[in-house]
Design goal:
Elements: E1 5-7, H1 9-16, E2 21-24, H2 27-32, H3 37-51, E3 55-62, E4 65-68, H4 72-80, E5 85-87, H5 92-98, E6 102-104, H6 106-116, E7 120-122, H7 133-136, H8 141-146, E8 152-155, H9 164-173, E9 178-181, E10 200-202, H10 205-217, E11 224-227, H11 238-254, H12 262-273, H13 277-311
Parallel strand pairs: 1-4, 2-3, 2-7, 5-6, 7-8, 8-11, 9-10, 9-11
Antiparallel strand pairs: 3-4, 3-6
Helix pairs in contact: 3-4, 3-13, 10-13, 11-12
The protein binds pseudouridine-5'-monophosphate and manganese (II) ion (MN).
Length: 312
């Protein structure tokens, strides 16, 4: 495996000694946010993790190598160089072979996290079932890969550009537990609430770490999804947002945008149509998810240590 994947020494040491580690994606850096916000945020979340005593493990593909743990120079490269791919799970093997570089989506980031032994992954929002999927079949690989790897994904819920109800159905089919952080209402990424109710509401990071421990210690497979509402002061006005989404989705259809280009296009148009409100929301929720994800990683690390002491 060594010739294909390069895990930084800092990450490797932390995983081996059971210290808290969190993985981050880079498709938000290469395709999700405009410059210079993208590079600044990618560095900032690593600093937040560091300040909380958690080792950040940002994932990517660089010149054909799967990477876990990047330098600042590598983040600059991914965030500014034109022509970097959006590296979904299906693209990994091809990029490795052609020596290409790409920003990893949720699906490929959690796959790399699992290969490196990391249990907590932090992102903004996950992909899901797109509006219109009953005819387009556009369902993000994020959902399927989440069901296969033993990694908890921390996000701000489902992007409202998706079909929330259908996404929740697919998550159920795939056996992925969906947990609300302090709420039983599914958060809606740019907004605190969707109209989907009835999630298990976790009280604390400890609570979530216990669920992770129960799941994996018992031998159950696959990930879980932790959804954290965006801080109130930064949520997008729901009416403004809904109008913008309808327009952006309609435009994407009209222009014949397909496949992996759909999500970046819609996110970019939303920023324009809301006068930057969704951009502000996006930055805020990623920072917030980082703090919560790091708390979960710390708690999971503590609980794993206690468990391994008893097991001896
Ligand atoms: N949500 C965001 N910004 C993003 C993404 C999601 O707010 O950039 C990215 C994630 O990397 C996610 C990907 O994995 O979009 C989903 O793309 P698709 O729908 O093509 O699977
Ligand atoms: Mn898609």
């Amino acid at each position: 495996m060594k010739e294909y994947i390069l895990i930084s020494d800092e990450v490797k040491d932390a995983v081996e000694s059971g210290q808290p580690v969190v993985a981050f994606e880079t498709s938000i850096l290469t395709h999700g946010l405009p410059q210079p916000y993208n590079v600044a945020l990618a560095k900032e979340v690593q600093e937040i993790a560091g300040s909380m005593g958690v080792v950040p493990a940002t994932t990517a593909v660089i010149q054909g190598k799967l990477r876990v743990g990047l330098t600042d120079e590598e983040i600059d490269f991914l965030g500014t160089e034109p022509g970097i791919a959006k590296a979904g799970y299906r693209d990994l093997a091809i990029l490795m072979t052609t020596k290409g570089s790409g920003g990893t989506t949720v699906a490929s980031s959690i796959a790399l996290a699992e290969m490196a032994g990391i249990r907590v992954f932090i992102t903004g929002g996950i992909g899901g079932v797109h509006r219109g999927a009953p005819t387009t079949f556009d369902i993000s690989a994020d959902l399927f890969i989440m069901s296969r790897v033993d990694v908890a994904t921390v996000c701000a819920g489902m992007k409202s550009i998706l079909d929330i109800k259908l996404s929740m159905e697919v998550l159920e089919t795939l056996g992925i537990p969906v947990i609300g952080y302090g709420t039983d209402i599914l958060p809606g990424f740019h907004v605190r609430e969707t109209d989907y109710k009835g999630l298990y509401a976790a009280e604390s990071p400890e609570d979530i770490a216990r669920i992770m421990m129960s799941k994996w210690s018992s031998g159950l497979k696959g990930g879980l999804l932790v959804t954290v509402p965006i801080p109130e002061e930064d949520e997008t006005d729901p009416v403004l947002l809904n109008d913008a989404i309808c327009r952006a989705v309609h435009e994407a259809n009209e222009k014949g945008i397909k496949g992996k280009d759909v999500t970046p296009y819609i996110l970019f148009r939303l920023g324009e149509l809301t006068g930057g409100a969704t951009l502000k929301a996006n930055l805020s929720l990623v920072r917030n998810n980082t703090r919560v994800g790091c708390d979960i990683a710390r708690s999971y690390s503590r609980q794993s240590k206690i468990q391994s002491t008893y097991a001896r």
